[in-house]
């Protein structure tokens, strides 16, 4: 089943805009669209409904109002009926207002929390990469899973190194700022600082080249492809890194 995003439902409403009246007409000409809108809302991933209590109540009341009106019209058998709206507003207008506030992407609720990252935007972006990588693994999208997991663990190690109090006193480290280092440097420095365990560093080392397979030239030159093994290796590395950093 295709993944539904709030913006798709907003676009569908915009293609079939309600009248300026608070009353919504339910009949042969509108029932198909109305039914489709409520069904698509029911199929929205729960993590995308990042709305307040009042907005959520408006969404639920509007959807149920449309469903009840459609059921009543079907039982009536002919003609049209009017849905009087909610608090003086057309229910489709309410639905559009609420869904316009929702993102099209959000981490799954089962994704590792990464609560140790204090930067909210960074934490959300890393969790989104990890969530999407996990979803790609389940869908057999090996390259997407491998590359996105690589992006997640690279971001985690960079953040940890940048915030490590022992970095200035490290006897030997790569030249330049951490932002310019390679992934292999991140692994070595993180291990030297005690940010990750030796077993985690070994797992990360196994996965470090997979991140570069997003470049067609490198993949062709090395005669390597992403498969289930590379995806599992990369995801295992990011989970181990997150475990160590959270400790």
Task: Describe, in short, the structure shown.
This protein has 247 residues and is mostly helical. The protein has helices spanning 6-15, 31-42, 53-76, 91-99, 120-138, 142-162, 183-192, 198-207, 216-222, 228-246; strands at 24-26, 81-83.
Please, could you describe this protein's structure?
By secondary structure, the protein is mainly alpha-helical. The protein has two domains: 6-99, no CATH class; 120-246, Four Helix Bundle (Hemerythrin (Met), subunit A), CATH 1.20.120. The protein is built from ten helices and two strands; from the N terminus they run H-E-H-H-E-H-H-H-H-H-H-H. It has helices spanning 6-15, 31-42, 53-76, 91-99, 120-138, 142-162, 183-192, 198-207, 216-222, 228-246; strands at residues 24-26, 81-83. The longest helix has 24 residues, at 53-76. The two termini are 38 Å apart. Residues 217-223 have low confidence and may be disordered.
Mean pLDDT: 88
Fraction of residues in helices? Answer: 55-70%
The secondary structure category is mainly alpha
From the 3D structure, determine the CATH topology of the largest domain.
Answer: Four Helix Bundle (Hemerythrin (Met), subunit A)
Strand order of the largest sheet: 1-2
Task: Estimate the global geometry from the Cα principal axes.
Answer: elongated
Report the radius of gyration as a whole number of Å.
25 Å
Distance between the termini: 38 Å
- Number of DSSP-assigned strands: 2
CATH architecture of the largest domain: Up-down Bundle
Largest beta-sheet characterization = 2 strands, antiparallel
Order of helices and strands: HEHHEHHHHHHH
Beta-strand content: under 5%
Low-confidence stretches: 217-223
* Count of alpha/pi helices: 10
Number of domains: 2
CATH class of the largest domain: Mainly Alpha
């Amino acid at each position: 089943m295709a993944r539904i995003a709030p913006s798709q439902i907003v676009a569908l409403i915009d293609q079939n805009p309600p009248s300026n009246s608070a009353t919504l007409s339910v009949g042969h000409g509108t029932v198909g669209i109305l039914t489709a809108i409520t069904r698509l809302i029911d199929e929205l991933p729960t993590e995308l409904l990042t709305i307040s209590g009042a907005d959520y109540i408006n969404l639920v009341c509007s959807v149920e109002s449309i469903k009840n009106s459609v059921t009543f019209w079907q039982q009536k058998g002919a003609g049209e009926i009017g849905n009087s709206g909610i608090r003086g507003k057309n229910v489709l207008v309410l639905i559009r207002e609420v869904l316009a506030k929702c993102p099209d992407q959000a981490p799954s609720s089962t994704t590792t929390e990464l609560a140790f990252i204090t930067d909210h935007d960074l934490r959300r972006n890393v969790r989104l990469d990890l969530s999407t990588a996990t979803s790609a693994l389940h869908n057999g999208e090996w390259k997407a899973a491998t590359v996105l997991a690589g992006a997640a663990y690279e971001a985690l190690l960079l953040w940890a190194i940048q915030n490590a109090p022992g970095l200035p006193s490290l006897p030997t480290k790569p030249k330049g700022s951490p932002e310019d280092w390679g992934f292999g440097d991140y692994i070595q420095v993180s291990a030297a600082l005690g940010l990750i365990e030796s077993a985690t560093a070994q797992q990360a080392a196994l996965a470090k080249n997979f991140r570069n397979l997003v470049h067609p030239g490198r993949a062709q030159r090395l005669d390597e492809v992403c498969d289930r093994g590379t995806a599992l290796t990369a995801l295992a590395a990011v989970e181990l890194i997150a475990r160590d950093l959270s400790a």
